[in-house]
Each structure stands twice: as C-alpha cells, then as structure tokens.
What we know:
The protein is of the alpha+beta class. The protein has helices spanning 2-10, 138-149, 216-224, 244-254; strands spanning 17-22, 26-27, 32-40, 46-48, 50-63, 66-80, 83-85, 90-98, 112-119, 127-134, 152-161, 172-180, 189-198, 203-212, 229-237. The chain has a five-stranded mixed β-sheet, with no helix packed on it. Strands 11-12-13-14-15 form a five-stranded antiparallel β-sheet, with helices on one face. It comes from Bacillus benzoevorans.
Amino acid sequence: xxxxxxxxxxxxIGAATVDTKLExxxxxxxxxxxxxxxxxxxxxxxxxxxxxxTVNTQYVKESDDHKMxxxxxxxRIRLATAFTVSANERREIPFSFILPIDTPVSMGKTRVWxxxxxxxKNAVDPADKDFLxxxxxxxxxxxxxxxSALGFRxxxxxxxxxxxxxxxxxxxIQEFEFVPTSGAFxxxxxxxxxxxxxxxxxxxxLHFQIDRKARGLGGFLAEALEMDESNIRISVSMDDIPxxxxxxxxxxxxxx
Length: 256
C-alpha cells in the first residue's frame, strides 16, 4: 500500500499540497511582503528538496513577426532546505521579502503574482499562485498625475520586451501609452509613450517617446517615414514632485 501511495503521489494524486497566505496583497515596489506557506502532507511521506517563492509577470515578446506572451521571474526567494513531510502532516513556514523596486504595477494588462513551489524529486511539484495588487510608488504616482494634469489619458499599459537601449535587470519594460484629450497638447500630439525605470526608491529615469501629429504635406511625409517621433530621457527625484508638472510640460513642449 505504501508503494502504491508513492506511485500515486509521483503523478500528483494524494501528494503534498501547498498554500501561501499573504498578510496583504496590496503593496508598492520596495515594500516588504510577509506571509506564511502552509504545507499539508499527502497520503505518504515525501521528501521536499526545496521550497521557494517567485514573483512573476508576463510580457509581450516578438519573434519572427509573431507576438507571444512570456512569463518572467522578477525575483526568486528560497525559503527552506531539504526536509521530509509526513503523511497528513501540517507545517507552516513564515516568510518575508522586499518586493523589487523594478516590479511593474498592476495597471492595464499587467498582472503580478507570487508563485509558491515545492521541489519534490521524481514527483509532480505542487504549486500555488497568489496575485498582488502592485500600486505605484510615490514618485511614479506623482509622474502619472503630472502627465494626467497636462491633459493626457492612459490608453494602454503593457509589459513588452525591452530593447537594447532600455534593457536593465529584467528582460522587459512596462510601457504607459497616453493620448492627449484636453489641454495644450490636444491636436498637437498623437500619443505619448512613457517608460518609468526606477533607480532607487527616490529617483527614476523617464523615457518618453513623443509622437507629433501630422500637419500638412511635410508632416504626413515625416509620419510615413517615422520622423515625427522624438525619444527623450530625463531623470527625476522626490525633490522634483512640487514642480513635476511644469518640468514635464516644458520638456514635452520642446518636441511637440
């Protein structure tokens, strides 16, 4: 019977299960996440080689003119070394970790989740998935509010494969696509794309792509040749927040 149970456990029937309980699911990049992993033994004793958490998201990757969704691991946290869980045993492992500052926020199509896995040799590894609501940091929120104050509305937010120019630790960037709906830039710009790259909790690089609206024959030719786009990079910090709207307005005006 014991051998039969082991065979079943190896294909996931009657095997150990895992359930992660987060203290809270709303968090900002750079904040601490706490919780407990609950492991319940199955019908037979099993050796757990490893137990880990991963923070994940998906991004769009292009290959041979085709787009595909790819899962990316933002962080991996090992919680325990090898141990044995007895049949029907219940064990809890508390954890805490800092959410990386370059974690994308939960806006638009972006989803972020914590996955918990048990590494069990010669068996199906049980896993658990818990979604996070990642809110913008104070600096990112100030940047988004400043762009909104200039009359722009967010049209789309999506994680995309990072170009060589924007590639940092992760293989993707989160892009915010805005359209002007009011204010001085309505009728002057088609869209504004923003990539927020945090340097620290208090500083970030902003990469803007400003797409000017075609005006006249020359404008239409420039648009056809993709000469109507300007790429701009600026650095901002928490000290800029009181004047952020004016700072962004001045920069965007130069290229609109």
